[in-house]
Amino acid sequence: MRRVGAHLSISGGLYKAVESIVSKGGNCLQIFSSSPRMWMSNLPSTEDVEKFVKQASENDVSPTFIHAKYLVNMASENKELVDKSRKSLEFDFKVAEMIGAVGVIVHLGSHQGRGFEAVKDQLVEEIKKILKASPGSVKFLIENAAQKKGKIGFRLEEISLLLKAVDSSRVGWCLDTCHAYNAGYSLGKDLGNTLLGFDIVSEVKKLKLVESLKCLHVNDSRDLFDSGRDRHANLGEGEIDLKDLKAFLNEPIFKSLPLIIETPGFDKLGPDKKNLDILKSLIK
After folding, report:
1. What is the pTM assigned to this prediction?
2. Which partner from 21, 31, 66, 88 sits 20 to 30 angstroms from 38, CA to CA?
3. How many CA atoms lie within 13 A of 147 on its CB side?
């Protein structure tokens, strides 16, 4: 059985997200470790952690991922911002270890016009610092970006180069369908606009990124192909053809990966059962 889940709120306690995903028919999960609007917070209580682990086990909710805060920018020239980003990620790793999460999914940030090569060594050094400060098995997972104006990872080559440079089994990546589509990677075998960009499956194989890929974010796009924008849509309501999304999800190299939605929700209240039901209908 394939693992399908959603990014859900932890309001009221981490364990509330487990209750929520079960009610929506999912069996894996993504959460923030704390409020995404604050750099730091208190670690969850022992009671909250125990409830989370117990309910996840009893309801077969696995794997769990933590998504890093969007405040993070590990490529900044601002040392204070980089330091805050590192400490925030170290906090995420602590919570991930406490609840048995597989990995922390991270948007690395923007080089702010300096170019990837100018910040590559800084990124590698910071990732290594976080891994050293966070012993255990939790993985550092780089998410691909949609935006082209300075965002790290909008080209998969950048992710490939970082993985090789860090050279750790604890570093991998997460592929977001909306981000890939808007960065110019076509998802379906029969897309007429394939020549405008790159075929995502071919690129993943060519760059030898299959084994290091640990999760798929399955989101539709509000914007046109190769737009460079990052705005998610509900499945079937955006610009990505469901036939193409189905072909993508059923590619053999992706079939063992957990699938996480981050959709706005048909009721505009976040990822919902209807989106998960659509996702389930697309996978074999």
Report:
1. 0.96
2. 21
3. 15
